[in-house]
Design a protein that fits this description.
The chain is about 35% helix and about 20% strand. The protein is an alpha/beta fold and about 375 residues long. The longest helix is centred in the middle third of the chain and has 23 residues, at about 140-160. The mean pLDDT is about 95. Bound molecules: uridine-5'-diphosphate (UDP). Uridine-5'-diphosphate binds near residues 154 and 174.
Length: about 375
């Protein structure tokens, strides 16, 4: 125990990446996780039907960052999956983000044509316009279109997902799904996109597979720290759990949204036409995931999950999305100021940021480089 230099708490993507970088440098790393499995919220598994299930919701890897891409490709190959999202709007299946093709799906052709011309007049082709920005235009056709998109795509979905109106949440959140002045139906435009060929869990297992790394599951940080007080004082601690939990909630709880997935198995080849179908206007769930699409799994059966958003409650469900706003950022900063010298926070929960997977990996790489380069 005494020879170990680093303790990483949490073996999701952030924890695994920093552990591996330290191990490659010759340092010893102990990784603990309170869960009974590795990979955190990117955990996936092959079920009895041979279908890879993303237990904590669909994860599609996408990045423009060469460093992140090259790093992960040491541990897995990716398929060439490019994600699309279908939304059902007034019973019509169309593409999200709203783009020029969407106009022709949901409106009569003459109206669609007029809107297309207006959009191309006002905006450059292949640009992305956040919905809140789009709302500012005074032209009556554009106003009609922006009201339509706001109401039919964002208003109710955001109410389900966040319990708020789109203008009440951090603008970066809705800007993730802008209006796209393009005919590109993909959800992401990054250079590299794909699903790990043997799943995310296997990718994380490979990242952690190093003689300098030891992994202990079912191990809670507080219990571990109490049992090993000297070790905790001497080693570097990388904490990917929630910062408020680390400090015993002394300034209050940082709020999160959680998600509840209701899994269903069907005795037919496919349930829906796409991996993810959003229901912005209907039902209480936000979207339905159909997992076999990701790795093109062959089965007579299919497994879907209906996604219901809910508040995070300690002990009841898991943390998924930080609720980023000024008050919560201030509370986060208040905790961060109390950080001891040998402790580093990272990951969605440690940084309280809405990271995509590539951004989580990038943050771990940058933190490692900062530490090693002094
Ligand atoms: N959003 C929406 N309608 C949609 C898709 C997204 O209103 O059909 C909004 C919603 O507020 C959501 C945000 O855009 O939380 C970001 O969506 P994204 O698909 O990036 O969420 P994630 O996949 O990370 O849950």
């Amino acid at each position: 125990m005494m020879s170990i230099d680093n303790l990483v708490t949490g073996c999701g993507l952030s924890g695994a990446v920093i552990a591996r970088l330290l191990a490659d440098k010759g340092e010893k790393v102990l990784v603990i996780d309170k869960k009974n499995h590795i990979a955190g919220n990117i955990y996936d598994y092959r079920d009895e039907n041979g279908i890879f299930i993303h237990k904590y919701g669909s994860h599609i890897f996408h990045t423009n960052n060469e460093k992140v891409w090259n790093f992960l490709n040491r541990f897995t190959s990716f398929n060439t999956y490019m994600h699309k999202v279908i939304a059902v709007i007034d019973g019509i299946e169309t593409t999200i983000p709203f783009n020029i093709n969407t106009l022709y799906d949901v409106f009569p052709q003459t109206l669609a044509k007029r809107l297309e011309e207006k959009l191309l007049e006002k905006f450059k082709y292949n640009t992305k316009v956040p919905i809140l920005e789009f709302q500012k235009y005074n032209d009556s056709d554009l106003k009609f279109l922006s009201d339509y998109i706001y109401e039919k795509v964002f208003l109710q979905y955001t109410a389900k997902q966040w319990g708020k109106n789109p203008d009440e949440i951090d603008s970066a959140v809705t800007a993730r799904v802008p209006v796209y002045i393009s005919k590109d139906d993909r959800y992401f435009q990054d250079k590299y996109q794909g699903i790990p060929l043997n799943g995310y869990t296997k990718m994380v297992e490979n990242i952690l597979n190093h003689p300098n790394i030891e992994v202990k599951l079912n191990t809670d940080f507080k219990t571990f720290a109490t049992a090993n007080p000297d070790f905790i004082k001497k080693c570097r601690i990388f904490y990917t759990g929630s910062i408020d939990e680390y400090f015993n909630y002394k300034y209050g709880e940082l709020p999160y949204r959680s998600v509840n997935f209701k899994f269903e198995t069907y005795d037919r080849e496919f349930y829906q036409s796409n991996a993810v179908v959003n229901y912005p206007c209907n039902y209480d769930f936000t979207r339905i995931h159909e997992y076999k699409y990701y790795l093109n799994d062959k089965s007579d059966k299919t497994v879907i999950a209906k996604e219901y958003s809910e508040y995070f409650e300690n002990g009841k469900n898991e943390r998924y999305y930080p609720i980023v706003n000024e008050d919560n950022k201030t509370l986060y900063q208040q905790y961060l100021k109390d950080t001891q010298q040998n402790v580093y926070f990272l990951g969605r929960l440690g940084d309280y940021k809405y990271y995509d997977m590539d951004k989580a990996a990038e943050r771990a790489i940058n933190l490692f480089e900062e530490i090693i380069n002094g």
